[in-house]
Structures are given as structure tokens and as C-alpha cells.
Amino acid sequence: MSTLTDSTYHSLIAGTPTPGNGGTVRAIDPAADAETGPEFTLLGTDQLQAATQAASEAFSVYRRLSPEARAAFLTTAAEKIQAAGEEIIATAMTETGLPEPRLQGELARTVNQLKLFAKVAATGDHFGVRIEPALPERKPLPRPDLRQVQVPLGPVAVFGASNFPLAFSVAGGDTASALAAGCPVVFKAHNAHPGTGQLVGQAISEAVAEHNLPGGVFSLVYGPGTKVGQALVEDPRIKAVGFTGSRGGGTAIMATANARPEPIPVYAEMSSVNPIFVFSSALAGERTALAEGFVTSLNGSAGQLCTAPGLIFVPEGADGDDFVAQVGTALAEASGFTMLTPGICSARINGEKKLSSIAGVSQVGRGAEGATENAPAPAVYTTDVATFLNTPELSEEIFGAVCLVVRYSAPEQLTAVAQGIEGQLTATLHLNPEDDADAVVARDLVQDLELKVGRLLVNGWPTGVDVGDAIVHGGPFPATSDGRSTSVGTLAIHRFLRPVAFQNVPAALLPEQVQDENPWKLTRRLDGQYQLAD
Amino acid sequence: MSTLTDSTYHSLIAGTPTPGNGGTVRAIDPAADAETGPEFTLLGTDQLQAATQAASEAFSVYRRLSPEARAAFLTTAAEKIQAAGEEIIATAMTETGLPEPRLQGELARTVNQLKLFAKVAATGDHFGVRIEPALPERKPLPRPDLRQVQVPLGPVAVFGASNFPLAFSVAGGDTASALAAGCPVVFKAHNAHPGTGQLVGQAISEAVAEHNLPGGVFSLVYGPGTKVGQALVEDPRIKAVGFTGSRGGGTAIMATANARPEPIPVYAEMSSVNPIFVFSSALAGERTALAEGFVTSLNGSAGQLCTAPGLIFVPEGADGDDFVAQVGTALAEASGFTMLTPGICSARINGEKKLSSIAGVSQVGRGAEGATENAPAPAVYTTDVATFLNTPELSEEIFGAVCLVVRYSAPEQLTAVAQGIEGQLTATLHLNPEDDADAVVARDLVQDLELKVGRLLVNGWPTGVDVGDAIVHGGPFPATSDGRSTSVGTLAIHRFLRPVAFQNVPAALLPEQVQDENPWKLTRRLDGQYQLAD
């Protein structure tokens, strides 16, 4: 099992520890507000090219692997991470302040996600093969033989998130889907959890070596501030970018990618307030469980989930008053959890200060501060729908357990809200589907929200993202930079592919995917009709 | 049948002729270098909002049409264009200088393309439905019910090309695929063929009316210069852009779209020199037919095809010398055709001047000028591979029948060429597949070129794009702004879609595509397995 010692650690360029010339960093234990763990050297931008060049060279081999070979590699990577799980979780707990059960769940998710993408790679559905054989007798012109296949874009730069040190970090969804697609990955380590990243990076590098793949299939690079990240996006060998983080960080990367001589796709997941729309019918019965469920969703992981609720719309009237009061009660019994970094904590405190100072906004309730450093109390505020619609700042995300209750007087006001909001990862409706009046409004609201979100839920909470074939974790700007995609689930593999057609190419020059013999036993389309693999 | 008279014509905003306040334009007959046909009023940017607002309102109805209803509308549009075909072709001949057989073929392609997208819309494969039913007993957490469907992005702005006044214009591929996806279209008319555009626009508008669809499903707008186009891309109601034209025009639209508060996808097809690689084995036998085939591909439509060959690599030695000589002979018997506009003709003449003045470049041969105005002689130049690799300007597109023959001494040099070129729509290999030595080089070259092109051909000519299920008309930048897509063929519908997931949404609130009953009889994925429609 890998263990971090007191020695100094480095970027893993094509599997090789590579001392950086850009200074060093140590992790901060946010619970103690103190440095912890070993030193990590930071790469200078002049050193980055070694990683991108290795990725570029590895690409020519890695992209041609058979589905089985790629799946086997991803499975080994998953197993290596699982094997190092105890040390990874212990390190992540110290570096992020996240509690053990949460990190155990996240480790399982990360491992299963790699195994899921191994299955995707093995099946090969993502090759999207389409074949139209030649029709020499067609009039007025013969039809050529045409065979289409999706090919990988090239080396991908991935930037991990602070809030998921495993599932959205070194071996997270972007890495898994890029590797499954056939793209080498250069991962920019998050300096908020350098040790966690090192352990996971070692596990992937070991899997690369064990399968005799070129080392450049995966590199982990530490860098100071944003310089190395920007240089990575500018590097001509990099052909796509995955990012999870702030709106400012994501839009900066978009600008850099668009300004390249050859612009490249950027998949940045950025900002979402995940509105919840509570209908009267949802409040007619038992309200305590609903209020408690809401506070649990709000306060879990200190509110540091991309899908945490930042806005909840509650009807005026006695039932709504009671629900809000019960939210206050549940909140009073809740305590703050340690936030990921002192910087994130201070941004959250400032965000709450700004919110509470806006005219027409008042406090519903607060919990207690947590016992550690950087553990502010969860808090809920309230305003009315008119104030909300007239105050754009009220739609801005506060990353942390702070939520705004917006009281509305008529369900039709929710339409104006839905049509006015920016793009979101999720929206949620709470209602009694048997209630005829609500059903009419809900039907329209669902259709409006469909244009604004990646995922729409009824009678649930947006936190908790099931990794599978049907999930969408995405949405229109600014939820992401590219709403045509998802960062979670099997569809994510399509981010890193593009179509190529082969016309009248002799069998000996055709890639396996489009050969008549179908050696990889792929599901393919023949003259527009699916032909299922057996 | 629609006929243009002497009266003045206008933009068709949601089907209604709308006089513009931005001046007027008339077509130029490039064969005579003289104005022709009626006047068309140009919209001021202040008038554009009527079209985008109508598109936005139409979207809420149009996007929910059943597959059959959308297919029926597209089929009617195809039939109306077919019915007006004689007048459309006569008008296009005068406005573009293109000959009748070419325009007859293009009309058939345009009509068939609309019918093909009607079929795509009817099948509904593009909804990409993925369903994972709830697993309440799953451990450690129950699985929610998740249902994914691809939804249309919203109103699309389309900019047509001058060189395909039908197949890449008002009712061209971008319009057809956007309408099939469920997106209303605001089409910016090309001022080089305003009458052709008017007739086709009338046909589509009639189809919209006949099917009782909101008029905003389709608008045709005339504008002065680039102002209206830029305002269209900036309009917040527009959610994607399709463009075919120059690299300068395409990159300007990309910049405008990226600078919006909400950036949107741009699909611009721009620039390609479509390299052809001739192997020794292809020259061992009969060379005359090959040389004649090449000159026909080069000179067809006056070289004004996106896939026209601009570069051809020919081995040194006697066979290669003879092939080049035969190209000269075939060229000497060829005449120039009328180009689309005086501006395009003058750019082509300047491009040839610049090419011929580069050190190390010499002329292979020229044809005769055409009998009309704006009909320069087709011309072929030559240089050696070292000069080519050291002179980046030699890779720039000259829009028109001008081609550069690059002589190489060793097939391995082609690898350096393939790795160095920019993104292309096509690349072509000519070889004898039975030749073992060539097969080895070709296999590597195919893999290098796969990273640079959208379509790879063997022993054919890149001009001629078959519209079907397997074609790719796209490629990495600068061939297009977004290599993840194609502008021709059924895959193009995916440009205008994005995924949405419904989680635990009651049946009554689910869209038809993901309902258990599968009322639209779609092919869907259930737990990751395709379930074919019957």
C-alpha cells in the first residue's frame, strides 16, 4: 500500500517523480488552520512540456488499444485505488476536513466510476459506428462506401475540484471518461489536497506501468497559482479541457482556450444555485420531515456540493409559514462542518454578509458553529418573490450552507422565476402529483425548467448524483461552459470524441471498428439501422 | 409556383414580408458583372428582434411537436421547394453563374436532404433516450428513477454559403438539421443570391403556414454587410449558430459568440485545402485518367467547393513527371467557369498572384479563361516538399481552381506533411492497395491523417459529398470551429441538442420520449442496453 512519508513529493510526469523548480506547497488542515503533511514541489511552466509531450507520444499508442485492453487498464487503476483506500481516506480527511463516511462513499463512487467506464470502453458503443456500403448501381450517382467512427480528440488537461478530492479529482469523472475515450490525461493537481492527489496519481501510474502502456498516458502536475494551469490550456498538444470549480476559474480557462491559435473544447462545471420549487400541495400534510430533509441536504458536506440547494421557493400562507418555521427549528439543531479551505470559508462568510445586508432579506435561522476552525454555522434567509426578481445578486451562488427562502403568492410567479434564472445543474419540484391544480402549473414549469437545467427532480433533494447511464450532471451556462454534455455518467465519454468518415478505404487500411468482420463485436448502424452486438 | 417580379422584396419575418430600414440590395450577375433582378430591402439591426422574438415564442410549441408532425412539416417544405424548382434554378443561375446541371443536382440534394431529416425526425433516434428505473433495494443507497433525453437548444441563427446557393443556404443542411432537432431558424440571407433565397424562404414559410405552426419557426432576414449578422449572434434568444464561409467570417462569429454573457455553440465550416497524397504505386499504370480526374475535380464549379483539392503530393521520378505533364495537358484543354461574385474572383486572382510569386514555386500549366466576366483560367503550380514544409503560406486556401503540386522524394516525407498540416475537411490517398511497400506507409499515414481530417478517401476525389448516415463533413480547426460535429448527414442533428435527465418525475410530468409506454416507439437504452423500436 502506498503511504506518504516525511520526504518531499513531486509531480508524476509519465509516471516519473519530477522535482519542480516553482517552489513548494504543503496541505492545510482546515480543521486546525495549520500546515500538514509533506512538501510537494511545484513545476515551473518551462517544465510542463515534458508532460504534454509524453501525453502526445502516448496518444499514438493508447488511442489504438483494443476495447478489452483499455478496459483492463481502467479496472486495474480502480483496483489500485481501492487497495490504497485506507491511506487515501486518512490523507483526504486531514487535507479537506471532510468526514470519514463521506470520503468512504466518495472512494467507492470513484472506484465504481472507473469500473463503469471500463465497461463502457469494453462495449465500444461510444465508437458510434455507422456504415453505408457502396451502391455502385445507384442513380444518378453511385454511392461510395462510407464508414464513420468516433475517434479520441487527443491529450486532455483535467483540473480537479476541491470539494470532491476523489470523485472529481485525480481519478474522477473527467479522467475516467477521457481515458476511456482513448485520450491521455495531464492532471493539474489541486493544491488543497496534494497528498490525496499524489496517492491516487501513484495508483494510476502503477496501473499504466503494469499494463505496459506508455507512461505519458497519465501525468499529475503540481503548479503554483494559476500559471501552470494556464500554460497547460495553452499547450498546442492539449486538445480538450475538463474543469470543475468556480465560475471565475472556468471562464478564465474558456477565454484561454478560445484565444489559442487552435481553439479547443472546454468542459467547465462552474456555478449553480439549484432552485427548489415547493408547491402548496407538498405542504398540506407532514411538514417536519420535509424541513429536516431540506436542512440535511443544505448542510451536508458543509454545503460544498455543486448541487446543494441555494434557493427554495415556498408559498405564502400558514402552511408555508409553518414549513419555514420548521426549517428554522431543524437548523437550530444543526452545526457547521469544517469547510475545505480557509479561503473557501472566508468567501462563504463574506457571501452570507452580503446576502444578509440586501434590503428585503431577513434571517430565518442559523445553526451552531462547528467545533473546528473554518466551520461556520449553516444559515437560511428569506425574501419575497418581487424582491428576488428585482435583485439579480440574490441568484448568485454562495458556496456553502447558506440558502435563501423566497416566498411567493401565486404559482404562476414560478414561471417568471423559471424563465428568468440562469442555467443550472438541477431544479427540484416538491408537490403532490395527485393535486390537479398543482399538476397544471407543474407541467408548464417542467417545460420551462427543461430549458434551464441538466437534471430535474420531483420530491427529492438535488444533492446525491447517481453515476450511471442516464444521469446528467451538466446544464446551460453558467452551470457549465458547454451544456451539450455531462461530467458524470457514461455519456461523458462523448466529450472527448469526434467523428471521422472513411470513404472507399480498402479493408487493410480500415480501423477495426468499421471492418466488415466487426472484430470488436460492436453495436453498429448499417444504413441507418442499429445492428446489435450479440 | 413562386415567381419573382419587378416589385421590391423583403425579409420574411415569421412568414411576413417585412420592409427593412437598412437600405436595399440587388443581385449581381457575375457572368455580366451587372446588377440583376429585383430590389431587396435590408433590415436594420433594430428590426432584427422581431425575428428572434418570434423564433423564441415559436420554440415553445415547435420543440414539443411529435416526430410525425415535424417530419410532415419537413417533407412539405421539401415538396414546396421541389415545386418551385424551375424558378429557383433559373434565378440561381443568373445570381451565381453556376451552370444548370450543377444547380439541378444541388436542388435534388437539397430536397432529398430535407426528406432525409424528415426521416431522422420521424425515427427519433436523436432523442438518445436512456432509462434506468428505480432500484429501491440497491445497497448502500437506493437508485432513483432516471430518464435521459436530448432536448433542442433553442432558436438557431444560420448563415448560408455563397458557393452552394441551395444545399448550404436557406434550406440547406444547417436549416434542415436544426428544424429536425426542434429548433426554429433565423436565416441570414446571403446577398450574393437574394432572389434564390427569397424563393426558398417563401417555400419554407408556406410549409410552416400549411402545418399551422407558429410563423417564428422560420425567418429569412436580409441585412447590410456584417452588422445584422453580428447582432443576430449577439441576440440572447439565439442559442446556437451554423455558418459556412470564410475563415475570417467564421472566426469573427466565434469571437462574438464567446463574448456573449451566455456563450453559445458555433458550428462554422471555414477553410480546407484537402490534400491529396499520390503514391508511386498509383502512377505505375495508366496515368492519363488520373490526371484528367484530378483536373475535373479541381476545376468543377470553378474550384469553389469546400472540398476542392488545393494541394497534391506527387513522387519525384519519371512516373511523377509524366503525371504532372499530363495534368498540364488536361489543364490546357480546360476553361475557367464563371465565379460566384466579382469579389471572390478578385480574391482568387490575388491568391494565385501571391502563390506564383513565392520563391521555389513554378507553374505547371493553365487553362483558358472562360467566355464570361469573372471566369479566370484554372491553374496548377508546383514546388518541392522542402519548400512546402518551410513556407506556411503554401498551406493557405485559395478559393478557386488553383492547386499546388508538391513533389516528394520519399514516402516518409508524407508523414511530416500529415503531422504538420492544419485541420482539414478531407484528405485523399491514391495508391495500389496491392503494393506492399506503399501499404506500410499508407497505414501510418492514415493514422496520422485520422487526427487531422473529417473524411479520408482512397482512390477517389474529395469533391462530391454523399448526404447520408455515415458521412462526415467537418474536421478539426480551422476546417471547422468545432470538429466534434458534421454539417452534412444525419449526425448533424446532434449539433442542436443537449441532454436532460428526469429523476423520480411522476409519469404525468414526463415527456413522451421517456414515458414507460414509449408512445413514440423510439429505440431507447434501458440499463445501458439498446432496446430497438419494432
How far is the N terminus from the C terminus of chain A?
Answer: 40 Å
Strand content of chain A: 15-25%
The strand count of chain A comes to 21
* Largest interface, chains and sizes: A-B, 81 and 82 residues
* Low-confidence runs of chain A: none
In CATH, what is the homologous superfamily of the largest domain in chain A? Answer: Aldehyde Dehydrogenase, Chain A, domain 1
Looking at the structure, the CATH topology of the largest domain in chain A is Aldehyde Dehydrogenase, Chain A, domain 1
> Counting H and I runs of at least 4 residues, what is the number of helices of chain A?
15
Q: How many structural domains can be distinguished in the coordinates of chain A?
A: 2
Question: What profile does the largest beta sheet of chain A have?
Answer: 7 strands, mixed
Instruction: Compute the CA-based radius of gyration of chain A.
Output: 25 Å
Q: What class would the helix/strand composition of chain A place it in?
A: alpha/beta
Main sheet strand line-up of chain A: 14-15-16-13-12-17-18
Oligomerization state of this entry?
A: homodimer
Topology readout:
The structure is a homodimer of 534-residue chains.
Chain A lengths: L10 E3 L2 E3 L5 E6 L4 E8 L6 H15 L4 H17 L1 H12 L3 H24 L6 E3 L13 E7 L3 E4 L13 H9 L3 E4 L5 H17 L7 E4 L5 H8 L5 E5 L2 H13 L6 E4 L6 E3 L1 H4 L4 H12 L11 E5 L2 H15 L9 H15 L5 E5 L12 E6 H6 L11 E7 L4 H8 L3 E7 L5 H15 L2 E6 L38 E7 L20 E3 L2 E3 L3
Parallel strand pairs in A: 5-20, 7-8, 7-10, 8-9, 10-11, 12-13, 12-17, 13-16, 15-16, 17-18
Antiparallel strand pairs in A: 1-2, 3-4, 5-6, 6-19, 14-15, 20-21
